[in-house]
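Subject — a protein and its fold
Fields — amino acid sequence, structure tokens
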Amino acid sequence: MPNAELLSFLVAAAARLSGYPEIPVDALPPVRVVSVDTIARAICPDEPKGCTGIAATFETESYEIMIRDSLDLEDPADNSFLLHELVHVMQWKARGDDIFKDCPTTLKTEGEAYRAQNAYLKREGQFLRFGEMLAYTQCAEDTGTLFPRDAMAAPDTLTQHKDPELMLGPLP
């Protein structure tokens, strides 16, 4: 379980980087630290072996976040997955289950979370970036696709944002 200080920091960062309203820490879903098998069974109950690469998930029905027990939450590369899920919580609070209403909307929802995660990683001096798989994901009803540039933080995201309230200030 992440401590309250880390959760507060990540919630503030997720809100600033995604543009969604910040949620008070005491209104967040519980964060459960679980095995990779538990996450895989939750996401892919019929074929859990196909979901062993997932680091974290926000489950809307049970209102909980599950994160892998192998993550080091003191490491920005690892806690960025929690930030990603916090963006999903903010999306869900803002728009409800509509964030997953269809394939194109789900891809947009994921793209927003990956952009915030990647902007956070950049801000933290990390070279890792996530979400490239969205470039290869296509919906049956939509021939359009997302490209890596759509899921990645733009170089000037943190310095050229039009709304200064959405910029991430100096880190402690």
Q: What stands out?
A: The mean pLDDT is 84. Residues 88 and 113 are 7 Å apart (CA to CA). The chain has one domain: 4-166. The first strand starts at residue 31 and ends at 34.
